[in-house]
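Re: the request from the purification team.
They wanted to know what the chain is likely to look like in 3D before they choose a buffer screen. I agreed to run a prediction and write the result into the notebook, where they can find it.
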Amino acid sequence: MTKPTVAAQSASTEGKALQQRLQRAEAHQAQLEYAAFSCKLRKRPLVLFFGRESFSDNSKYLFLRSLSSCRGYEVLWCTPQREVARTLQARGLPTLLIGQNHEQTIDTLLHAAVAVFTINPFESLGLSIPLLGCLAGARKLQLWHGISVKKLNLQLLPHLPVRNADLRQYWLSNIGVDHVLSTSSHFDEYWRTVFGCRELVRAGMPRNEVIVRPAREPELLGSELPDRARNALESGKPAILLTPTWQRSKETALTDADFLTRIWGFARRNGANVFIKTHPTYVGRWEHPADEIEELHLIDPGVDLYPHLQRFAALITDYSSIMFDFLLTGHPVLTLDLRLGDHQNYEPDYSLVPPGDFRIAFTPETIEARLDDALSSDRGKQARAQYATRIFETDPAEAGTTLLRALDAWVEQSLAPDFRAHVY
């Protein structure tokens, strides 16, 4: 069989690149046309909720809360994930499987009064550029997924190649929202800068309600643990949560075999259990599965751990945003000692959050001593509690109540007469 020539290979590559550009151009044209329809159409009393690949995070809790009382409008959980849709439908929860029926999906999105997001809308819509246009006329609320020491969206323009079309698509999708949740006046400028959004909503994060109160039965959906992990968490032994975060393709010491050996040794010596909730990019990195080691428990990235957070005696992370939510448990937070410039030239950046003594810094070599001190004496408890009141200025237990008032108002506004008759 004759191998293709260099010229033929080059022509094939150029042809594929041209085809991709044409497909992108067609997708953007469809987005513009759907957007024109969406901005002109009369809206229905309908609020759409979009989440992650699993049923979890802020939009999950606000969705369930909206179903708990008659709001005067319809609500739908929207997902491109078949298994999630199947699970929710089996529980009788109103669900739209995005793309199962394209005409139904487009019609639903075009007529929605409000859309609520937890992650990038582009991801929430199954990476469909045209479907973004369908929501152009809806009021869009971004709850996001945590207080961050990472630069995001518009803050990344000086650091990442803005000429990259794929990056631009993600950023443009994110900055297309109308409102952004801000838990504190300390973060207002940050969120305005990140999303380019001038309309902020002051409230707590809905997922944090189950940290400060018991979870209700519907809220446990998506939080199921393997039997072995559940039994360990309920055993009464100290439970330590380890959460490596995504570091833009960089490595983290928290997934290093030597570090995990240190953590496992500490757990064995102290009669404790370690629960590892990884970012999806880190799954499968360990030579020996955690299920083979008695004190270690590997939790699937899609599991919603928030109903269980109060059970953990301490959190260990590099710089995951969960460290701020975990302050509401009252238990110690240990973070990897990465200073600005040590890891990347723009993150982690603790200047993005208020100054304060809310965490215990460690290195891989000092983790055992720092953890032992935190669990035995916990001298920073009062400082953490004070810091929590600065970054969560409203009652965490009232997050859903506050945000539902906003949704109610926006739906009512979308249904009000929006035309004038001129008589000459």
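For the purification team: The mean pLDDT is 91.
Please add any questions underneath this entry.
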